[in-house]
């Protein structure tokens, strides 16, 4: 009777990292879906804690450096990647990422990748090819970085058109490092910054460079703060004081902005078309001891009383969040920008109708694409004379004055909010417009 050989030490986290990366490259599963899903298709949750950290790190570095990795691999495969090779590209990319960008000994990375290939029913036919390719790549070493190389060409070209070559290069450079952890606090940002060992941001939040598990941090179970990128905290603040006002948050889950509206005193209806995401919103609000009326529904066809304040955080390409979600660059297609822009225009028209005369609408997207931001607002103003921009002021955005565009809308770029310590620099790319509706 033959007995299976024990699996080599260190293979399990690599196999999970390969599955995570393969889910992204095949556009079937986002990074968050692998890391957070209740149902765990990648095997991530079954790993011991230390292996989870390693799998997450390997997948993260691979996706952040994937443009470089794909180029290096393609240069060694004269006839391209073999067809029907299963997760071979992810196996090669994760191995090169470890050897060139993670200080993991090259022989460990290569040997485990070859074992992983041998154990995969589709990739096993190419284990020899993987071995030869990987040895050639790692012995040549890491190439000099070229601006934009780690982004899909369609995306980098768009950013070059929108922000110029220097702007695009600065954005690309700032996406190379992992983002800090940003918190929105109910009150006393400097006190919380001190307690948690972070800094108080000029925009009002708290930033931590390093941290353990979020729920273990001081103040989490007391509901004193919530995780929210510094840029994502801007749109809801543009409403100012909402004491005694009604508000509708149209695409609300998981509720970061709903929490801000509720904390500013509004009576909020939180709408989302996903019941599952909305139940996460309710859990988040209950931890924060804040309240809002959840409502499952499609914002495009909502029968609801108009409100003083309407927030539309529209579904978007999310290209402003690549620092936090490096998979976005490889999951999205350029055609998504076009189809999402159509949906955003439709939702904007609905949102305007839901604002009481004299009330305010804030529109925002976590996208760097002008079609989803600046152009949406220009088109809305051209087709609806009831709507005007109420410009954001420098006093409202201390430290981010450069993010206010000539029309008075807010356009944050990932290299804004600089800091001497690169671990504390930058923020997500966001667009936000404050509109008054006559
Ligand atoms: C960018 S997220 C919103 C983040 C949220 N505003 C926050 O600050 O935590 C977009 C949300 O829009 C929801 N969504 C997408 N299309 C929608 C629609 N047509 N109607 C209502 N919700 C929608 C998605 O389910 C998702 O939860």
TrEMBL record:
Positions of transmembrane segments: none
Descriptive protein name: MFS transporter
One Pfam family, short name: Methyltr_RsmB-F
Amino-acid positions noted as binding S-adenosyl-L-methionine in the UniProt annotation, renumbered to this chain: 251-257, 272, 313
Keyword Methyltransferase: yes
Family, similarity comment: Belongs to the class I-like SAM-binding methyltransferase superfamily. RsmB/NOP family.
CDD domains to which the protein is assigned, alphabetical: AdoMet_MTases
PROSITE patterns: SAM_MT_RSMB_NOP
């Amino acid at each position: 009777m033959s007995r299976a050989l024990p699996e080599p030490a260190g293979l399990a986290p690599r196999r999970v990292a390969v599955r995570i990366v393969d889910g992204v490259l095949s556009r079937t599963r986002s990074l968050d879906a692998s890391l957070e899903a209740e149902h765990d298709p990648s095997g991530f949750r079954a790993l011991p804690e230390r292996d989870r950290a390693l799998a997450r790190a390997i997948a993260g570095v691979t996706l952040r450096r994937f443009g470089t990795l794909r180029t290096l691999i393609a240069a060694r495969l004269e006839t391209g990647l073999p067809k029907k090779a299963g997760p071979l590209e992810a196996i090669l990319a994760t191995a090169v990422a470890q050897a060139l960008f993670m200080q993991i000994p090259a022989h460990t990375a290569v040997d485990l990748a070859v074992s992983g290939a041998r154990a995969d029913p589709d990739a096993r036919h190419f284990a020899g090819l993987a071995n030869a390719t990987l040895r050639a790549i790692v012995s040549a070493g890491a190439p000099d970085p070229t601006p934009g190389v780690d982004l899909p060409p369609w995306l980098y070209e768009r950013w070059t058109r929108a922000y110029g070559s220097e702007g695009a290069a600065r954005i690309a450079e700032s996406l190379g490092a992992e983002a800090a952890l940003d918190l929105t606090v109910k009150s006393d940002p400097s006190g919380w910054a001190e307690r948690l060992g972070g800094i108080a941001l000029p925009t009002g939040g708290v930033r931590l460079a390093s941290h353990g598990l979020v729920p273990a941090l001081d103040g989490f179970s007391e509901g004193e703060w919530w995780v929210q990128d510094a840029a994502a905290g801007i749109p809801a603040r543009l409403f100012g004081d909402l004491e005694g006002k009604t508000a509708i948050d149209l695409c609300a889950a998981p509720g970061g902005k709903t929490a801000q509206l509720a904390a500013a005193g509004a009576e909020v209806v939180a709408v989302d078309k996903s019941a599952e995401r909305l139940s996460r919103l309710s859990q988040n609000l209950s931890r924060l001891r804040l309240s809002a009326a959840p409502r499952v529904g499609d914002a495009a066809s909502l029968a609801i009383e108009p409100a003083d304040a309407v927030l539309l955080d529209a579904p978007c390409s999310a290209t402003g969040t690549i620092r936090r979600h490096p998979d976005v660059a490889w999951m999205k297609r350029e055609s998504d920008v076009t189809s999402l822009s159509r949906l955003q225009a439709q939702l904007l028209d609905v949102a305007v109708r839901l604002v009481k005369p004299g009330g305010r609408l804030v529109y925002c997207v976590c996208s760097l694409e002008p079609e989803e931001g600046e152009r949406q607002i220009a088109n809305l103003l051209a087709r609806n004379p009831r709507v005007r921009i109420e410009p954001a002021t420098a006093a409202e955005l201390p430290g981010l004055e450069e993010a206010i565009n000539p029309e008075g809308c807010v356009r944050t770029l990932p290299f804004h909010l600089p800091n001497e310590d690169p671990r504390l620099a930058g923020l997500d790319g966001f667009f936000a417009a404050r509109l008054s509706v006559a």
